[in-house]
Amino acid sequence: MHKKIILTFLVIVAITENLFAAVGCTLNDPDRDIKRLFKKATNYKTEFIAIKDRGDENLVKEIEAKLKDKLEPTYESIDVPYAYYTVLSKKQTIGYVHGVNQKGTYGAMQLILATDANGVIIDFYYQKITSPQAKTFKDKKFTKQFIGLSLADFYTKDIKEIIKKPDKENNDYLATLRGTKKNLILHDEFYLKNKYDKYFYQNEKKGDKK
Amino acid sequence: MNTISIAYKNLKRKKIRSTLTIGGVAIAVAVLVSLIGFDKGYQKSLTGNIDKMGYQLLVTAKGCPYEAATMMLKGGGGLRYMEQDIYDKIQSDPRIDKITAQLVSTSYDPDRQDGQGGFVMYMGITKSYIELKPWSKFKSGKWFSSETSEEVIMGYEAAEVEQRLVGDKIFISKLNKVLTVVGIFERSGTQDDGIIFLPLKTTQKIFSLPDKLTGLGIKLKDIHQIGQFEEDLYDEPGIQIISMAQVRGTILNLISSAKVMANSVAVIAIFIAIIGVINTILMSIFERTREIGVMKAIGASATDIFKLIWTETILVCALGGVLGCIFALLASDFVEYIIKKILPYAPTGQLVIINKNLLLTALIGAIILGVISGIYPAWRASSMRPVEAIRTGE
Q1: Is there a contact between B32 and B216 (Cβ–Cβ < 8 Å)?
Q2: CA-derived radius of gyration, chain A
Q3: Fewest Cβ atoms nearer than 10 Å: which of A179, B12, B121, B364?
Q4: What is the least distance, in Å, from the CA of A109 to any CA of chain B?
């Protein structure tokens, strides 16, 4: 009987242990993370928004045009929910925390942005990155380059000139830039009433004239 | 007017009280239906999960099972290994239909489990693993190119979480090793969904476990030979053997104490509901003593009064039963969510199964409840003397 129970225990674990959490880009510990990112935060509100909640295939096309890349049909489909934390100080919105999953070279990366109420980045970090160069990417030297940037910079400037890659590895660097831009585009679409669209269209016009 | 419509109108006269009583019955029925639904669902899911392992017997290394279980629970190392010789020795047994050797190893990932850190499970397998699980299908890609290739096949969820497609790379930080994804399995609803599979020989090589195995899955040609087969291997040094049927039985035994507790709660809920119903109907009779007296005085027989009060009780219970069934149906997803949160090792699949038969049984049960709990109030009302009742009720 003793043996049976023990082996049963092992098999239960083998049968049922779910070694992988559900897909999502929620914060690991919202209470802790938001307090760390926003010292003045007194409260926060969590919302899950998918592209399909705000539009249809036309919105997907619009996002792809702004991103200048296609959304991956399996992992970036229209019904993937994105987590948004609206950070409050008393009743005033002082910022947002939002993350996206971005396909990296060796696994999914979770890119988290803390932005102020106008969508300017005040902090950026990798909640998850699997890579031989993970340490270099997580290093403050690299991540602090994102601080102070907004979607306008991604639309109008050569972002690679502003955010220098941390080492020779190029794919995860490019993936990080793509994920961050996607994150900002979605945030602009869902929360900032497309206030950065003017920079996108300005830039498009410049491109057309050229 | 027939008895049912009079009974219904009587209940409507005290809406709040009737609603509360019906609500009480509904909650009791909903709890009972959910519990029975859970019992059915859990057994079915567990059986399904065990069947989907594909083998009837599991051979593992002997050792301190508590320690191994604890380590495995944490997803860490400490897994017991046995020599591959055992496989070579057992596989030639003519009673075996299919046999597969497995080597499980883990690698720590600090980002896993909401940043608390966790282990990724890697399982070294051979082609026979798939032969034991003919339902395993590729969503994309194919089998390993060779027995020693540095390739992986990912379970559905593992690939989804890591956003891997065929041709992508994965990185095992513990070993500083990069492997290529050659296949992704379709969702199976089993533990395989979360596992990263490698060729057995590759696993032995990269995890530095030459000629080691963690388990052997065995399917016999004739299931009636399981007992004898187990007995024959009993004296084999370094291994222990267990049948999946035993596993199923023991798991169900382990959860049976929890079930007894839950069933006790349901029985208490039903008991309280019965008392509530009797109390409500008795109150209603006492309030209507004069009315009952008048009814009798103008010709209503004791049987008519008995039927009326009895019908009221049955109506309360029947309505409560219907509502309870609706509650149970509506709340089944929520109940399942809670159970999965509470139970540390809930099997995959639907844990609460509420079908037509169960609902019908619950409804009939509620009506029987009404029949039983209505007898005393109905008898009490029918045995009132008209003159006394009119005088007392004034």
Answers
A1: no
A2: 20
A3: B12
A4: 8
B-facing residues of A in 122-151 (CB < 8 A) are 127-132, 134
Question: Could A19 and B251 be called an inter-chain contact, meaning their C-beta atoms sit closer than 8 Å?
Answer: no
Q: Which tokens go with A123?
A: 């902090």
Sort out which chain A residues have CB atoms less than 8 A from B245's CB and list them. Answer: none
pLDDT in tens, chain A (210 residues): 444 444 444 444 444 444 443 345 788 889 999 999 999 999 999 999 999 999 889 999 999 999 999 998 888 889 889 999 999 998 899 999 999 999 999 989 999 999 999 999 999 999 989 888 888 999 999 999 999 999 999 999 999 999 999 877 789 999 999 999 999 999 999 999 999 999 998 877 776 665
Which residues between 151 and 210 in chain A have a beta carbon less than 8 angstroms from any beta carbon of chain B? none
State the DSSP H helix or E strand holding residue B9, giving kind and residue range, or none if neither. Answer: helix B3-13
Tell which phi-psi region holds residue B75, choosing left (phi > 0), alpha (psi between -120 and 50) or beta: left
Give me the amino acid identity at A181.
K
φ/ψ region of B197 (left if φ > 0, alpha if ψ in -120 to 50, else beta) reads: beta
Which ipTM was obtained for this model? 0.72
Q: How far apart are CA B288 and CA B274, in angstroms?
A: 21
* Tokens linked to B62: 């002997």
Residues 6+ apart with CB under 8 A from A92: none
Main-chain phi, psi angles of A139, to 5 degrees: -60, 140
Report the distance separating Cα B121 and Cα B205, nearest Å: 16
- With a CB cutoff of 8 Å and minimum separation 6, the contacts of A87 are A34, A37, A38, A41, A44, A93, A94, A95, A96, A97, A114
Tokens found for residue A36:
């760390």
CA distances from B260 to A122, B266, B267, B394 (A): 54, 10, 10, 50
Contact criterion met (CB below 8 Å) for B107 and B175: yes
